């Protein structure tokens, strides 16, 4: 499950391995927590190991094939109705267009 737990009566080597495993797990947790948005953080704080955290994130954001197709359809619709707003600069419009196109590309690879 991501962390090796040394038996109650263990020699020095298994204990050292378990300590290194815990330290590694804490480091990875720290990296994950630093890179995850605060809104997501609240849903994963109850997880014990990095594997639990990662699996939880994958389940939440990968979704089923139906969900992916629905998201792709939504992105297609957003792209079809995309229009530049009067108060929007060309750079802002281009950034919005590029963001939608990149999301569509990412979804096509996953489906």
UniProtKB/TrEMBL annotation:
One Pfam family recorded for the sequence: Retrotran_gag_2
Top-level taxon of origin: Eukaryota
Quote the protein name from its UniProt record: Retrovirus-related Pol polyprotein from transposon TNT 1-94
